[in-house]
Amino acid sequence: MDISTKSIVTLQPIVVKNIRPISHFSSKGNMSITEDGEVIIQLPKHSRKLVISSNGEAITYSSDRRVAKTYNLQNFPQKLYRYYHQASVLVETVKTKTPKV
Q1: 12-48 burial by CB neighbour count: b if 16+ within 10 A, else e?
Q2: Total-model pTM
Q3: pLDDT band at 6; cut points 50, 70, 90
Q4: In the chain, what are the domains?
């Protein structure tokens, strides 16, 4: 899926269920899944933080220049879709690596 296009993309909620907490560090930022199922993306270079609720419906975006704002999937700004997509890829990758019991 190409997120950079201007076409309308429908986001699917990220479902974090039965996934252990994990952190992934890269040169561009940090991504983590917390104990309570929130997915957090931190971009220190731009002082941005995106927190996605455990059911994937509520997204809080904060920047050093603005007050934190909470969105839902219906009113989520398209310019932030790529961050949501990155979180979705992280969750799906962790799901494939998690043993099924």
Answers
A1: eebebeebeeeeeeeeebebbbeeebbbbbbeeeeeb
A2: 0.82
A3: very low
A4: 27-96 (3.30.1120.120)
pLDDT in tens, 39-78: 999 998 878 999 999 998 999 999 888 889 999 988 999 9
Residue 16: per-residue pLDDT: 87
Amino acid at 40: I
- Between CA 26 and CA 50 the distance in angstroms is 16
Closest CA to 43 of 59, 71, 21, 62: 62
Those residues whose C-beta lies under 8 Å from the C-beta of residue 50, and which sit 6 or more positions away, are: 40, 41, 59, 60, 61, 80, 83, 84, 87
The whole-angstrom separation of Cα 78 and Cα 57 is 15
Distance between CA atoms of residues 2 and 27, nearest Å? 22
Q: Token pair for residue 49?
A: 């933080």
